Structures are given as C-alpha cells and as structure tokens.
Amino acid sequence: MSSTLAGWLQALALVGALALCYRPLGDHIAGLLTTAKHLKAERGIYRLIGVDGDADQRWPVYLRSVLAFSAVSILFLYGLIRLQTFLLLNLGVPQMPGHQAWNTAISFVTNTNWQSYSGESAMGHLVQMAGLAVQNFVSAAVGIAVVAALIRGFTRNRTDRVGNFWVDLTRIVLRLLLPLAIVFALVLVANGVVQNFHGFHEVATLAGDPQSIPGGPVASQEVIKELGTNGGGFYNANSAHPFENPTGFTNVLEIFLLLVIPFALPRAFGRMVGDNRQGYAIVAVMGLFWVASAALITFAEAQHGGTALNAAGAATEGKEQRFGIAASGLFAASTTLTSTGAVNSFHDSFTPFGGGLTIFNMMLGEIAPGGTGSGLYGMLILAIVAVFVAGLMVGRTPEYLGKKLGGREMKFASLYILTTPSIVLIGAGIATALPGERAGMLNSGPHGFSEVLYAFTSAANNNGSAFAGITVSTDWYDTALGLAMVFGRFLPMVFVLALAGSLARQQPVPATPGTLPTHKPLFVGLLSGVVLIVVGLTYFPALALGPIAEGLH
C-alpha cells in the first residue's frame, strides 16, 4: 500500500471515529457541567479546599479563582523543578537554571508546553509525573471551565452568576479527563509505548557505539499530553520518538486524542443552549478549516521542487519514514490547529508553504478545533463578531442566541481579538530588532524571520511547538516567551469571563423574522469569512516577510 493511500485511509478512519464520539462525548460534557449532583469524591475535595459546591460565583470571583489557582500552580511547579536534584527518581539530572525553570512552569500551567530543554535529560521521573503530567490535566480543565462560564452567560438571564470554578475544575478532571486518560493509556501501553520507572540504559548500537536510552512513565504522560491538547513530550523528539509513538496505529490514535474533546465541545455547547443546530454550525466551521489545512500541508510537502526533493519524491527531510508524508501532514495540521504543539515531524524542515501553513494555523487563534475549551470560546468570540458584522449590513442591533450584542459586548470581543496578535507581532518585532537575539537565529533571511515569528506565535497562542533553528534557551527568550505565554493565556480569559458576566445579566430577546439564523450554511460561510479576514488583515504583512517570501523565492 502506498503512503498516500494509507494517509487517506487514516484520515477517513479519523473522521469516522471523531463523528462517532461527537454526540456521546459532547452530551457527557454538557451533563457534567449542568448537573446539580456531586460525587462523593467531589464533595470530599470541596471540604478539603473549603468550597461550597452549591454556590455559584460572579464573573470577577470566577476570574480571581482561575488566576489564583494558576499562580499557585506556577509557583509549585517552579519550586518542584528547582528542587528536583533533592527529590526521588531524579535520575541524576542537573539542576535547571532559574530562568528556564520559570519558563517551563509558566509553559505547562498555561497549557502551552513550550520546551526549551530536552525532556529526557532535564527532568526526573517525579517531576514528569507530579509536576508536568498534573498540569497537563488541570490546565486543560481550566480551559473547559472558562468556556463553560461563557456558555452559561448565554443560557442564564438577569443574574450575575456564571458558575463555580472549583466545581467545574473538579468535575472536568474526575469525570472527563481522568477516565479517558486511564483507558487510552492502557491502549498506548498495549501498543508499545513505554511505561516504567527505569533510568538510563547503556546499549551498543549496530555500529558498536555506546548509546544511553532512558525509560520512564511515558504512556501516562503521553495520553494526557494529547487528550488535554498540551503537547509537551517526555522525550526531546516528542511524538517522533518510538517510545512515545511507536506505530502507525498509535500515530492515528494520538491525533484522535488531541482532536476528540475540542471537536465534541460544540455538541456540549448546543446541548447547553438548548439548540443542537448551533453546535453543528460551529463544528462545521472547525471541520472545514481542519480538512483544508491537512490537505494543503500534505500537498505542499508532496511537492518535488529541487534536486534533493526530486530524488526523494517529496519533502522527506525531518519526517519519520514509518509515518510518511500524509501522516506527518495530518499530524502537523491537527497539532497546530489545536493548542497541542506535539510533533511527529520537524516543522522547520517543511517546505516554505507547508511550514507557513503551520504558522497560519496558529494565527487563526487555535479555533479549528482549538485547545480544550479555548478553541470553542475563541470561535464563539468570532461568531459574535460575525453576527455584529451581519447586523451592520442590515442596520439592526445584532443578537446571538437571544442576547443583544451592544457596545460593551463588542468591546470585550474586540479586545480579545486584538490581544494575541499584539503579543505576537510586538514580541517578534523586538526579537528581530535586537542584535543579540538576531545572532541566535541559525538561518538568515525570510526563514530566520519565520523561526522567530513561529516562536512568538506558538507561545502567545499557547501551542508550544517550535520551528527550531533558533536558540531560545537564553535569559531573554525564556523571559520574553514566558511573558507571551502568560499574557496570551490569561488576558483573553479576562475578556471572555467579562463577556460572560455581561451576557448573563441581560434579559433574553425573542427571535423575530429579522433575526439572523446562526445555525444555517449561510452563517457557516459568514463565520468562515470573518475568521479568514480577521487573520489575513492582521498577520499577512508578517507572513509576507517570512514563509511567503521564502516560498516565492
């Protein structure tokens, strides 16, 4: 069987599996976010942290809870990393520098998982499990909790309450992420992913040279790395490493895991607002962008321009031969359209247009389908903008799901849209203007600029993948990218929760013949156009200086 045919079959199998999970998983998520019943274990956690599980919070209190939990998580993880040389299962790894530990702690708490270090040589097993893997669970849960609060803003009327963050966080971890992680971790182990507490094994290669091979609790971290759209690899090679991703089946399974929750959340949205058609419209837009991106990246990587590419038959540099071009393109599209950032190939080795598409995917705002929770609330913000644009065209006050979109709501939506591009473009501009940071680029010209643009796009959008070819383990980059991750994660959440509070206080408006139907193909097309126009107007000059210039040259 050719790799191209295998790639098509994998894509079809993936679409089928996601379609089968869309309804049951989405209904389960909606149920756990709306039920008034608490499990016994959940009540025990509420008593332990001193929370009233039946008391809802105003949006400022919900926001303070998100920020306080995240701040404590950063401090805890930073301390754990800095002290790992004194802890059990440290494998004798050297102490991580303070600036790098700070960057790493922020990275995992913000669901970015940007790694300026080599996982197998910088982290012991205890830090991998008790620090990084734990944050993979709770950072994913935070994103889902925030979108739950936004949805409640649409469903609730004349109230200032948007839910209870601690209840949402606990339920998402215990009822959603943990059960799925246990099941699929066993599947990964059964298919060859490593799960042990071994240290480094010294072996001889076929050439007779010594090689040090580390073991570790890989499967338990691999599963939540994908399921929670986190992306940080146990090994430096990430999902290209055979201990993390040994076979073609595990490759498809990992793509499925990083897509299944983001694609199921629109169903939960439809159930919670009482109109499943709204969920179908949102998931249709997500699906269109995902299919288009996977096809375009695969096409770009299959081109034969140049002597080396003609000899190989495609752009095979930086790709695992056991996966091939199609599976690598599918993984690249999926991981950059979500906030996962895991890689099974080297994006820096992609063709100019193939690599440019991975940057463009992140510039969309991680919305197709995006990260766990963050993808849906990003898409809903753009849906609000699309409804507003439609209202301007017909000269009436826009309404979405029975709520009027006035000046206050549109200010929050506008601030949300402007935040991430500002961080990306200002950060990349400063980095390319500083002589010392330009010296860290291993490539000059458009490709060197693409590497810097990719780094800040990845950090600000909480993706975490890297174009490589640039030295980022410096004080300046650890600090700058850390700030990009913090502001890129939490500033949008401020505007989302403020918007939720504003919507929840409104009296619902009945639909009239002039109300824009937001569940029909017309709205799907309008929303898709708004996404492309917003991204195009914002980022096209930067893309023209980087991957487009390189591709045309």
Outline:
This protein has 553 residues and is mostly helical. It has helices at 3-34, 40-49, 59-82, 98-109, 119-122, 125-155, 165-190, 218-227, 248-273, 276-301, 307-312, 324-337, 352-363, 374-394, 407-433, 435-438, 445-460, 475-504, 521-545, 547-552; strands at 200-204, 210-214, 399-400, 403-404.
Characterise this structure.
65% of the residues lie in helices and 3% in strands. The chain has 20 helices and four strands. The longest helix is centred in the first third of the chain and has 32 residues, at 3-34. The radius of gyration is 23 Å and the shape is globular.
Radius of gyration over alpha carbons?
A: 23 Å
Helix content: 55-70%
Please give the order of strands in the largest beta sheet: 1-2
- Sum up the overall morphology in one term: globular
Question: Element order, helices and strands?
Answer: HHHHHHHEEHHHHHHHEEHHHHHH
The overall strand count is 4
Biggest sheet layout: 2 strands, antiparallel
**Mean of pLDDT:** 92
Number of helices: 20
- Beta fraction: under 5%
Sheet/helix structural class: mainly alpha
Low-confidence stretches: none
Distance between the termini: 35 Å
Main traits of this protein?
single chain; 553 residues; mainly alpha; two-stranded antiparallel sheet; 20 helices; 4 strands; 3% strand; globular
Task: Give me the secondary-structure topology.
Blueprint: H1 3-34, H2 40-49, H3 59-82, H4 98-109, H5 119-122, H6 125-155, H7 165-190, E1 200-204, E2 210-214, H8 218-227, H9 248-273, H10 276-301, H11 307-312, H12 324-337, H13 352-363, H14 374-394, E3 399-400, E4 403-404, H15 407-433, H16 435-438, H17 445-460, H18 475-504, H19 521-545, H20 547-552
Antiparallel strand pairs: 1-2, 3-4
Helix pairs in contact: 1-7, 1-9, 1-12, 3-4, 3-6, 3-18, 4-18, 6-7, 6-8, 6-18, 7-8, 8-9, 9-10, 9-12, 10-12, 10-13, 10-19, 12-13, 13-17, 14-15, 14-19, 15-17, 15-18, 17-18
